[in-house]
Amino acid sequence: MASLKKNAFWITGITLISKIIGFGREMAMAHFFGATFIIDAYLMAVAIPSILFGGVLNSISVTFVPVYTEINERMGKKQSNEFTSNISLISLILSIAATVLGLLFTDEIVRILASGFKGETYDLTVKFLRISFFALIAMVLRNIFVSFLHCNNRYITEKISSLAFTLINFIVVIISGFFNYNFLIYGYTMGYFVFMILIIFNSKTSGYKFSFKLEISDNIKNVFYLAVPVFVGSMAGQINLLVDKTIASRLKEGSISSLNYASVVNSFVFSLVTVAMVTIIYPVFSKKIARNDIDGFKDTLIKGLNFLIILLVPITVGSIILAKPAIVFIYERGAFGNSATEMTYTAFIFYAVGILAVGIKSLMIKAFYSLKETKKPMVIGFISVGINIGLNIILVRYMEHNGLALATSITAIVTVFPLTALLRKKIGPFTLLNSTKLFLKSVFSSIIMGVLVYFIYRYISPIIGIGFLKEFITILITVILGAAIYFAVMKVIKAKELKYIEDLIKK
Q: Are residues 132 and 188 in contact, defined by beta-carbon separation less than 8 angstroms?
């Protein structure tokens, strides 16, 4: 447990640094290019390969974890290394085939998936997409070896490699801004190959030994058997993403960019808590199941759920209260004007509504995958597609791009309930009464915190003044005071689950 807490601490720290650099990249992108056709084309070009092929290829790395864990527990390191080599070779062949297909039909793909793009925006998207397809190869191999590192408790080295990827992209955005925007897509693709090389190197230092073994063994068949529902389920997410981007491509210029900028901020506040916990807990789930420890599995699940509630509820409230000054601080400069700020700010609020639901959904899906149950999440995934598309059609008519963000959040909230019910049916009952009480306490504490944070910011902002550094200090002080208020209220109303967070901080 001490090792897990230490890993969680370092993962959160490195993720924070990576997200700050990522923010720097987004700030630079907003400064140089604003919410324009250049960024719309870039974002569509980097999204399409994942939409079309990422699901089937990345599903292999997801189902790799429980199968690898079982092999390593029962047969040892040599067999698990051979399995890793085999699955990586097969994934490499599949990713090359997907890249070739993408290059052959680039024009047709853009015409269908970005039907709202015309003229210069269309041409630039096609040009960018032809380059971004090559990133698929690096992306797939990276995911396999990331899963390998997680199974061997090497979380920190993976996050350092991810940090290098983010840093490269940041540098490339700066170069693109000063010289030529075409460098944007080259930097994105190059970053993935650097990421892949670092991950494979770290895997070798973690005990991985490559062996050229290309065969369809029973274990490989098991991975692909499990991967099919994961792929089909992930396609649900890709369809949602595709529908969002296709509808946004038909709205006014900058809609895709504004949604992306809002999503980046939302991802920052979400990832600091969720990434570390879900990254570590998935292999732990798999090990509990491999050892047939169902009670331990349930206990880990409940602790993970409570952890998310304690931290994500106040983060949601605080993010909504401070959304406007945060967006202004992060983006509003250069080509990113007041209109872009308003579009991004409103979209962020509607994304923020679903922060907790997305965290719980991620936890539940990992629990299913560790049980080698991939069909039920697939079914729920496709139900969510119908909900999301229906909400998109309704809400976008009244709320424009904000309707797409709100639809995403509502869909995440709705899908949590059937996932929880199906998991209870799979592993037997586990009590959610304490978690429900904890949620209500957290909401109460967060509302008090939110009201005080609103007045604190309005009071200290004029005192500290205007300017980049001063605005940062104002937001930082407000966040620190808000956190102190939240945890103080939680202590007063005796939220005993808070002790888990306190122990984590002490250790």
A: yes
Joined tokens for residue 68: 């690898």
CA 188 to CA 31: how far, in whole Å? Answer: 18
Give Cα separations from 116 to 40, 44, 48, 347 (angstroms). 11, 12, 15, 20
Question: Among 399, 311, 308, 315, which residue's Cα sits nearest to residue 350?
Answer: 399
**8 A C-beta contact, residue 407 and residue 465:** no
Give me the pLDDT at residue 10, please: 64
Is residue 490 packed enough to be buried (19+ CB in 10 Å), middle (13-18) or exposed (0-12)? buried
Which residues, including other chains, have CB under 8 Å from residue 97's CB and lie 6 or more apart? none
CA distance 243 to 238: 8
Phi/psi at 138 (5° precision): -70, -35
Of the listed ranges 100-114, 214-228, 288-302, 409-423, the least confidently predicted one is 214-228
| d(C-alpha 365, C-alpha 84), whole Å | 23
> What is d(CA 409, CA 354) in angstroms, rounded to the nearest whole number?
4
Question: What is d(CA 256, CA 36) in angstroms, rounded to the nearest whole number?
Answer: 9
Cα distance from N-terminal residue to C-terminal residue, the chain: 11
User: What are 108's two structure tokens?
Assistant: 């047709």
What phi-psi label fits residue 11: left (phi over 0), alpha (psi between -120 and 50 degrees) or beta?
A: alpha
**Tokens 């080599």 sit at which residue?**
85
CB 314 within 8 A of CB 484: no
Q: How far apart are CA 51 and CA 26, in angstroms?
A: 22
Tell me what the pLDDT averaged over the chain comes to: 78
Distance CA 227, CA 230 (A): 5
The pLDDT tens digits for 423-477 are 888 887 777 777 888 889 899 999 999 999 889 888 888 888 777 677 878 888 8
Distance CA 444, CA 156 (A): 35
